[in-house]
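Worked Example 4.2. Consider the chain below.
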Amino acid sequence: MALNIVLLEPEIPANTGNIGRTCVATGTRLHLIDPLGFKLNDKMLKRAGMDYWSQLDVTRYDDWEDFLERNPGAHLHYFTTKARYAHTQVSYEEDAYLVFGKESAGIPEEILAKDPERCVRIPMIGETRSLNLGNSVAIGLYEALRQNDFEGMKMRGQLHHLKWSADVMEKTKD
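Applying the procedure from the previous section yields the following structure tokens:
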């Protein structure tokens, strides 16, 4: 299983760094589509991604058309506040591409209008414009991972200095 996160023209290095770290933690590929609002050696990017950036499976593209040409047949899901469906109302393929637009404008409507059935929204109340990009990616990605049974992921943790009691271990058996 290899899910994919696609960032279309991301602008804030700290968001992209955090998203990169999330991708490493989940075995997810990251696709960055130019123009980026920062340089990949930006210290804010590295600070947010910490020492994980070297472990990241990341591909960079010249533009949207380059991305489409190099990923023919990709199962795209567009995350946008303009969608008619919630992100939990669709099924994510194990190789799905979750597409997110730049922080200031989202995904261009010209892209969204071509495939409205693939547009999804993270529910919010009131007139909230949007969530932080890193948070949106995490919400969408973990829903896709959940639908695919968190394949290959570690589901249980251990205490570092103590041990879980026997009754706690009994409740959390796989």
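Residues 9 and 36 are 5 Å apart (CA to CA). The chain has one domain: 4-171. Compare this with Example 4.1 before moving on.
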